[in-house]
Design a protein that fits this description.
The chain is α+β, with helices and mostly antiparallel strands and 331 residues long. The protein contains 9 helices and 18 strands. Bound molecules: adenosine-5'-triphosphate (ATP).
């Protein structure tokens, strides 16, 4: 039990940012909170850090209730999207700054900074100032600055979103490695589902101020708890078919609709359709067919626009959602 929030409510005037959020990041776990823009992810993290006061609910870190304590007393390190480095200090000085402020002995500052820069692979950059570093290097400095604190938990708010696609993927792998090595509890916020699924031990999917589902990346992707989670995770988005259209494929439970991921919409079934558009994305092709459905197939096995195909869905690949509540009713 490392970071536990229970029944968190947070309002900004008439905007309700958090609606009864209950969530736990277990000891040593990398928990990724993911959801669309405005769903309340950053607010949740800021409440845990103590940068926002909560209206209702409790926050505890390692069993200690910190709901009303000041940020400095919570012993958490936060890493932001904007690196928030001091421009006039070198990378090394930035990293050690928090320790110096706490009057940590000089030798210990040197040792801890050296350990942290070695962990994130920037020992050769410590003398440079932020303007002499690339975005990825700056983010590593920000990470090292969080690491030297040796806090009880790390809170990371979209730390990679300012980086180009290649550096992002590289840093993602680094972060995963770092997490394994340090074994620390991390709560990581992102709107990027790929980042969430690749990085997390467990994923919490948020929507409109609520946590919709918490589970391993496999669980949330393969068994989404409701239509919102199902639609949010996966590219292209899951196909949804109302009962009248779904009946051509499978018998579906009364009052439900059918959900089929694009990689599970087969082109060797019995339901006739015409290919309207084919998008090639490297090794995959997204095949748009009549009725607004999309199939994902290997690019070298793709049909041509205008082709007649026959669609199919295997029972094991079908998801059913209650039409009224959106909840999963089986698969
Ligand atoms: P993003 O991915 O865009 O950063 P988010 O999921 O992190 O989004 P939050 O920043 O937590 O979302 O915002 C949640 C809601 O609270 C939004 O509707 C936002 O407009 C509102 N909000 C956040 N901070 C404030 C504030 N200081 N004053 C007023 N409203 C705010």
């Amino acid at each position: 039990m490392s970071v536990v929030v229970e029944g968190l409510e947070k309002r900004f005037g008439s905007v309700v940012a958090l609606r009864g959020v209950t969530l736990e990041a277990r000891d040593g776990e990398l928990l990724v909170v993911v959801g669309p823009s405005g769903c309340g992810k950053s607010t949740l993290l800021r409440c845990i850090a103590g940068l926002e006061a909560v209206d209702e609910g409790t926050i505890s870190i390692r069993g200690r209730d910190v709901t009303r304590t000041r940020p400095a007393e919570r012993n958490v390190s936060m890493v932001f999207q904007s690196y928030a480095l001091f421009p006039h200090l070198t990378a090394g000085e930035n990293i050690g700054f928090g320790l110096v402020v706490r009057e940590t002995p000089k030798a210990e500052v040197r040792r801890r900074v050296a350990d942290a820069v070695a962990l994130v692979g920037i020992a050769h950059l410590v003398e440079r100032r932020p303007y002499e570093l690339s975005g990825g290097e700056r983010q590593r400095v920000a990470l090292a600055r969080a690491l030297v604190r040796e806090p009880e938990a790390y809170l990371l708010d979209e730390p990679l979103s300012n980086l180009d696609a290649g550096t992002r993927v590289e840093m993602r792998t680094e972060l995963r490695r770092l997490h394994r090595q340090v074994g620390a509890t991390m709560v990581y916020v992102t709107h990027d589902q790929i980042e969430a699924l690749t990085l997390a031990d467990r994923v919490a999917v948020m929507h409109a101020g609520r946590v919709r589902q918490v589970g391993t990346p496999d669980e949330v992707y393969r068994r989404p708890a409701d239509r919102i989670v199902a639609a949010f995770l996966g590219t292209p988005r899951m196909n949804f078919l109302a009962a009248t259209d779904a009946g051509a494929f499978l018998a579906i439970p009364e009052g439900s609709e059918l959900g089929v991921r694009p990689e599970h919409l087969r082109l060797d079934g019995d339901v006739p359709a015409r290919v309207e558009l084919v998008e090639v994305a490297g090794g995959d092709a997204y095949v748009h067919v009549t009725g607004g459905l999309v199939a994902r197939v290997p690019a070298d096995a793709r049909p041509n626009e205008g082709d007649e195909v026959r669609l199919g869905v295997r029972g094991a690949d079908a998801h059913f959602f209650d039409v009224a509540t959106g909840e999963r009713v089986g698969s």
